[in-house]
Amino acid sequence: MASITHPAAPRKTRHTMLKDHDRRMFALSDDNALMKQINATHAPDGREVDVKPILQIIGDVFRRATPSLVGVLNGTQEHVDTEDKTVPALDFDDILEALAFLIYKISCELSCKCSGGGDAHATTMALLNTLTSFSWDSKVVLTLAAFAVNYGEFWLVAQLFSRNPLAKSVAFLKQLPNIVEYSSSLKAQFEALNKLIKAMMDVATCMVEFTELPSQFISDDTPAVKAVTSHLPAATYWTIRSIVACSTQIASLIGLRLENTTALTTEAWELSSLAHKVKNIHEHLKSQLALCYQHIEEKRHLEYFYTLVRLFETLHLDNFKILKALLHPKEELVIGSSKKKVNIELLQRKHVLLLISDLDIPHDEIIILGHLYQDQTQYEVVWLPVVDRLSPHADKEKVKKFEELQSMMPWYSVIDPWTIEPAVIKYIKEVWRFNKRSILVSLDPQGRVTSINALHMMWIWGTGAIPFSIEKEEELWKSEIWGLALILINIGIDPKVTESMAKGDIVCLYGGEDIDWIRKFTKSAKEVATEANITLDLLYVGKSNAKERVQKTNSIIDKEKLSRFWADLTYIWFFWTRLESMLYSKMHIGKTVENDPVMEEVMTMLSFDGSEKGWALVVRGGEEIIARSNGEIALKTMEAFENWKDDAENIGFVPAYKEYLQKLHTPQHCNRLILPGITGEIPERIVCAECHRPMEKYFMYRCCTD
Fold it and tell me: What residues does the Sieve element occlusion N-terminal domain cover (predicted)?
């Protein structure tokens, strides 16, 4: 095969794609003068042409016709794909019938004007004038269709000439066999041609996508729309200009001779330069189109959000529309570990509790809620986890965590939390004020929200709080007084305490994590019980949010037989969570420590938990008097039993104990109340339960793996 040299100044031939005038035009930027010429050809008559199906067929032509350089060019063309995989059965005969002659006319114009290496700019402008009444995207697609006809016919012959007599005769008349002969010389040219065709198709696809943007979600004055619109004339010009260049290249292959191939290197460079320019146009259009899609998504989400707002403001016969909008577009849920799919119609006209959490929901919460759920038939629970939609759905660790949590739950859950509508998440966060901590939204059988967080009521009263309305909450508090029944007995987690209270024994709850104080206090309390001849039930209830440390303390208490304790740490979690819930519930109904004694006692208990020291609460079964204090005063009181021993015999153990506590009490104190941040539930002003002065507010950021 003859080798090809690369002279410094290639000899001009009739096959040269661009003349000097064309190169000067190509070097011009899209300045005002050129834009004025392009815009002067544009006079759309308002007709709408659905060019998307035409573009699909054009893409199919290019895909099947694109030469394999190890195939046609080396004379070993691979098997031609004859299966119709891409072109759908499109019903647009009327469209093609109306445009067929125009496409034929443009294809003839491309063949004629590009055969002699004419003025590419003039040819481009002539085509724009021919298409003056069409939109910018239609101009590009129709010109691409005309080129695809010529390009497809060319490669159809090239692919079949070696085994089809008719194709061989046509190829001979066009002298196409020389393509095989000069395969080495043509490799760079066809590679550049293929890159330019891909770039043109990318631009055309972007332009067609732009015309399909839904007008109800995006307007012409949107910045991204303006940016694309202003760029369409230049994109149209350079795409059609590139089509002219490609047509010129295909025409130059007819009757190819060895002496003409020396110009092909320059021609390949021209194609590559055009491909670079058109690719830049595509990148710009694509980036602006992405901004358009982002704008549309935001508008859609906002419309969905306001649809939810309107749904919850509207009265319904049942809850189906509400559940459908919130849960899953396919109206399906799964049941716990069984993964059995069910339709949300099963929840129709039922009381539904939406458990909303992230994937860090405490296992204790699931366990306790599971116990309460299994003992009733009055409501259904649906887990709606809030996950980071930006995180990869393929994140195996997060998917695994979701499935593990789902398997722990006996109730319903969404199938895939990553498919929950963003507008639903927005509603959950903005209207229901979800922020990290789990909430339990209560929906009555008509879909009305009776509580945006029924968890507090659920922890305090269980199913007795249904329908979890504020009226029910106020009613339940009217029958409650501060005592061990409210603190512990009502939840039934420690039968021994219930038994002790029934017998009239003394019960002492204590907590903290100072093991030295625990040793001293339990030793002294036992000695006092012996001397006072009372039965004392000592119970260690630990500390909130300190599982590992409490576990260690439990081990020491057990080993040294200091007192009773809860081996199941879920009980300790539930004990402190209920106290927190009592505080939030009281706040919810507008109570303060100044006007509500139960709230005062709850805050005192929580402040004990917030300190580094121990604390103790003493009560006798059948009596309403409760004595509680911090660990230092409690220990001193036990150690000074001789000083109030007579009072214990005269007025009773707990009253005497309480009186002596008050004698030791001093005005000096430093109480801390640590509350988990729940948006909208903590008031700006909280007063000290001991002195009723406003407490200072500090922000504490906590990360505890314990």
Answer: 29-316
Report residue 321 as tokens.
């529309």
Q: What is the pLDDT of residue 268?
A: 74
Residue 31, both tokens: 């300045």
Rounded CA-CA distance 332/337 in Å is: 15
In what side-by-side order are the strands of the sheet with 506-511? 564-565, 536-540, 506-511, 615-620, 626-630
Supply φ then ψ for residue 353, to 5 degrees: -110, 120
Long-range pairs, 430-435, Cβ under 8 A, ≥24: 431/309, 431/312, 432/356, 433/678, 433/679, 433/680, 433/681, 434/356, 434/386, 435/677, 435/678, 435/679
What are φ and ψ of residue 618, in 5° steps? -120, 135
Query: Span 531-543, mean pLDDT?
Result: 95
Q: Are 562 and 592 in contact (CB under 8 A)?
A: no
For residue 693, what pLDDT band results from cuts at 50, 70 and 90?
A: low
What are the φ and ψ backbone dihedral angles of 11, each rounded to 5 degrees? -70, 130
Sign of CA pseudo-dihedral 304, 310, 312, 318: negative
CB-neighbour burial class of residue 186 (10 A; exposed 0-12, middle 13-18, buried 19+)? buried
Q: Characterise 564 by phi-psi region: left (phi > 0), alpha (psi -120 to 50), beta (else).
A: beta
Segment 298-321 shows an average pLDDT of: 94
User: What residues have CB less than 8 Å from 74, skipping those under 6 apart?
Assistant: 180, 183
Whole-angstrom Cα distance, residue 41 to residue 175? 38
> In a 10 Å sphere around its CB, with 0-12 CB exposed, 13-18 middle and 19+ buried, how is residue 644 labelled?
buried
Query: Position of tokens 């402190």?
Result: 576
| pLDDT (0 to 100) of residue 119 | 86
Task: Name the CA radius of gyration of the chain, rounded.
Answer: 41
Give me the residue label for tokens 């019960």.
507
